[in-house]
Amino acid sequence: MTEIPRTHPRYLSLTMRERLVEGVRLGVTAMQGLIAHGRGEAFDYILGEKTRDFALKAERAAVAMMLLAKHPVISVNGNAAVLVPADIARLSKVVGAKVEVNVFHYSPERVEKIKNYLEKFGMEVLTACDAVLEGLESARRIVDSRGIYVADVVLVPLEDGDRCEILKKHGKKVIAIDLNPLSRTSRMADITIVDNIVRALPNMVRMAEEMKEWDREGLEKIVERYDNSEVLAEAVREIKEHLEKVADEF
Ligand code: PTJ
After folding, report:
1. How far is the centre of ligand 1, averaged over its atoms, from the C-alpha of 221 (Å)?
2. What is the pTM of this model?
3. Mean pLDDT for the chain?
4. Is the CB of 181 under 6 A from ligand 1?
5. 150: how many CB neighbours lie within 10 A of its CB?
6. How confident is the model at residue 136 (pLDDT cuts 50, 70, 90)?
């Protein structure tokens, strides 16, 4: 890995890239994951690379939904695995969610590599690939009968729109993490967190640690009051306002 000096103004962004490149070298991250990350970076740039209020609102609702769920599952792909492995382990523990590897660019060897990588961070990982989500053509249809197949709530970071749609058709609530508020996934999900996964997951762990003590009524109120269309509209407006501010400064 290239050593990035801590003083570099884009230290965080560059270390994320290095982690993904290392992920590709290890066979954990798909090459296409680098392209997807570039798209995410561009959206993060125009969001000012910070967690905005609309994202905090979505993160709080997501945590409430996961704490209320009977079978919450965190679906992990090759990007999420290398960017936030320790936070995935923490979140799964606090909200009592299972962790399942589910990838678009599928091979049994790759799934095994992601599983082995995640297990080093102290979590149990489902990869049975013994059930199928009917109605989906891509490899993402192959799931674990103890995980996504029976889940009522699925957290899907960096998702593609098709699977989000199918998960919903199978009666599941979907929480997406996607820096692009315009994507099909963002529009399809029940809760869309428009934030970088490296900020969203630690925020969610912090919230979950506090909210796990709450009674169900308090959690239900948060989920009931949450409006995803409003949050997406806020995200687009904030991008516009942020860009206008930048334009005024030129
Ligand atoms: O590991 P696999 O085989 O499952 O493949 C994973 C990728 C990411 C390649 C696959 O799911 C894919 O092609 O995704 P898309 O359709 O490119 O969508 C990825 C979305 O994630 C895009 O809308 C990006 O803006 C967003 N994104 C990228 N990096 C981040 C992100 N969102 C949050 N945090 C990020 N760090």
Report:
1. 31
2. 0.95
3. 94
4. no
5. 15
6. confident
